[in-house]
Each structure stands twice: as C-alpha cells, then as structure tokens.
Amino acid sequence: MRKEMRAAVYLGPEQIELQSLPIPEPKEGELLVKVRAATTCGTDVKTYRRGHPKFPPPFVFGHEFGGDVVKVGKGVTQFYEGMRVTANVFAECGECYYCQRGQGNLCENLVYNFGAFAECMIIPASIVRKTTFEIPAHIPYAHAALLEPLVTVVHGWHKVAVQPGETVAILGAGGPISLIFIQLLLRSGAGQVIAIGHSPARLSVAKELGATHLVNAKEQDALTTVRELTHGFGADLVIECAGTKSTWETSVEAVRRGGRVLWFGGLPSGTKVAVDAARVHYGEIDLLNMHGGTAAEAREAFDLIVSGSVNVAPLLSGEVSLDQVEQALKRMMAGEVVKMVVNPDL
Ligand SMILES: [Zn+2]
Ligand SMILES: [Zn+2]
Fold first, then answer.
1. Rg, the chain, Cα only
2. How far is the CA of 269 from the centre of ligand 2 (A)?
3. In this structure, which of 80, 315, 317, 320 has its CB flanked by the most CB atoms within 10 Å?
C-alpha cells in the first residue's frame, strides 16, 4: 500500500497548498477512510477569508465527505473495510453538563474533524461512535457528504417550529444552508418562502427548490419588499443566513410583531448588533440563535438524505480535483456556484 497521499493543506487566510503527507494510521476506535467525494462549505469560505477562531493552521482542509473505510482501528466493531461511510464534522461527549440536558451541540468536549480535501482521512473515535453512518448503495458519496450542513439546518428547523401557512423570509438565500432550509420549511407547511439574496444563479436554485418569491437584494430593497409581500406586517419568521451585521439588523425589522427571527449566520467575536429594544420588547419578537446540532439530529439529517426527503443534488454545482480547491472556494465567494464536489481521484 502507498505511504503518501495528496492533501489540500490550509496554511492561513487565502493560502491553500497541495502537499504530500503520510497516510495516517487509525488508532484505537478510529477509521481510515479513502475520500471519494468531499464538498466545499460556507465555513470553508469563511475560514479561507479570515481564518477560524478555534482552529489555528496548518491543517488539512475540508470536512464534508463520503468515502470507503480502508482500515479500522482496534476495537471498532460496527464498521469494516470496504464500507461506504460519511460522518459529521463533530460529535458530543454525551456526559457533560450540556449533553445531560440534551444540548449536545453545546458540549464542552466537542470533538471536531477536518481533513476531507485529501485522498485519505481519519475519523476520530468519538465521531465513529456517535455520528458516523453507513451510506446505502443508492446514495452517491457526494450526496452523503452534505450531512454536516443538513445537521445544522435540522437543528435550526426544530428551533423555529414553523406552523402551516406561515410566511418565511430568508436573508442570504441561495447559499447551501438556505437551500436546505427552504425544503424543510415547505415540508412543515410554510405558505410563502421569500428568498432574498445577491446571486441570480443561486436564487434560481432557490426557485427550483420551491421558494415562492425571489428578491435580488442588489436591485430591490429587501425590507420594503418583505413588507409589501406581507401587507405591511412583516414575515412570521425571518431566517438570517448571510452572516453579516446588516442582515442581522434587517431581519429584526423584517419580522412581524409576535414573530421570530433566527440568526443562523455567525458573526465574528466582538461584533455589536443594534436592534430597536422597544420594537423587540413591545412587539414580542423572539430572537433565536443556534449553533451546530446534536448527535440525534445528525441521525435525523442522515435519514432525510437517505429517504430522499431533502433533495441535495441541486446544491452540487460541479466537480473539481484536489489542486482546484482554492479556485472552487473563489467561485463560491463570487456566487457563481452553490457547492463544489472535490474528487481526490481526478
Ligand atoms: Zn460544512
Ligand atoms: Zn458533552
């Protein structure tokens, strides 16, 4: 067997280098997986632009994948060589203060895993135990790779508890998160989904997946349009997926009295957001926040992919090789594509 593999290594903002690295050996409880498809993610784009607050470079980039188990560590019994698998990027410990309260996404000992933009990667033991899944034969590797974004959307979907007939406005629509959200909102019976974004190419995918109204924020004022479409009231629910201070603030203006806002897109530490306290308080506006998802939600998300309840194919805009990762991220930033599949065999 070969001893070296190619891997796209993140060296810092706007620096990714294709390197030859030793193929890692799985330790107790771990899996070594040959990556067959990995997908680019909004988090990769954010990290590429400005670094990641928790993870200093260098590290092998990428965290969404589907692949084949090529070696199992000691003590692994539920997976074996040749099995097709995907795994979430994180797993909770199941024992800490938060895990005991069903809030595993806030776990104090959360284990993360990176390294999908490479020929091979290790899955850490706790992720193997809690959030690794066998991919059935009829599901392509690249579809299973979308597990992680889906886990976070499932968590947000539970939080907003959409009621039949509700009008939902999504700020930052056209990105992968919003495109999954649209499908789950409609599944819950949302009446209207107003997709507000900047990229006509991405908004057309939102339309394909069932958004009832498209708003190009470069041409139309988002707030005015939402109010017009809701007879001046504002949306029942506003989901902010763009991750900017201005869209956080706009979302509070675009919601109706008694409605709720979900701030999905994270902002850098230290960011201060201005909201009208009287509007929020006397208007009974619920400001919801979320991050990640639990192991139970990872299972639920995986089942949504396997059953075909969520259509992930329209999120995949094309395929690239390992040495084109940087180019793929730049195309995401430009809004030309939704997600790209990285195929290490190309
Ligand atoms: Zn991701
Ligand atoms: Zn925990």
1. 20
2. 23
3. 315
pLDDT in tens, the chain (346 residues): 689 999 999 999 999 999 999 999 999 999 999 999 999 999 999 999 989 888 899 999 999 999 999 999 999 999 999 999 999 999 999 999 999 999 999 999 999 999 999 999 999 999 999 999 999 999 999 999 999 999 999 999 999 999 999 999 999 998 999 999 999 999 999 999 999 999 998 999 999 999 999 999 999 999 999 999 999 999 999 999 999 999 999 999 999 999 999 999 999 889 999 999 999 999 999 999 999 999 999 999 999 999 999 999 999 999 999 999 999 999 999 989 999 999 999 9
SS3 245: helix
Give the Å distance between the CA of 337 and the centre of ligand 1. 15
How many angstroms separate the alpha carbon of residue 165 from the centre of ligand 1?
30
CB atoms within 10 A of CB 64: 29
Parallel, antiparallel, or unpaired: how do β-strands 235-240 and 167-171 relate? parallel
Count of other CB atoms within 10 angstroms of residue 223: 17
- Supply the pTM of this predicted model: 0.95
For the chain, domain boundaries:
4-146+312-342, 151-289
Q: Partners of 122 in the beta sheet?
A: 32
Please provide the CATH number assigned to the domain covering 4-146+312-342.
Answer: 3.90.180.10
Closest by CA to 260, choosing from 229, 238, 291, is 238
Give the ligand at the shortest distance from the Cα of 339.
1
Q: Which ligand is nearest to the CA of 148?
A: 1
Domain 151-289 has CATH 3.40.50.720: yes
Query: Which chain residues have CB less than 5 Å from ligand 1, an ion?
Result: 41, 43, 64, 148
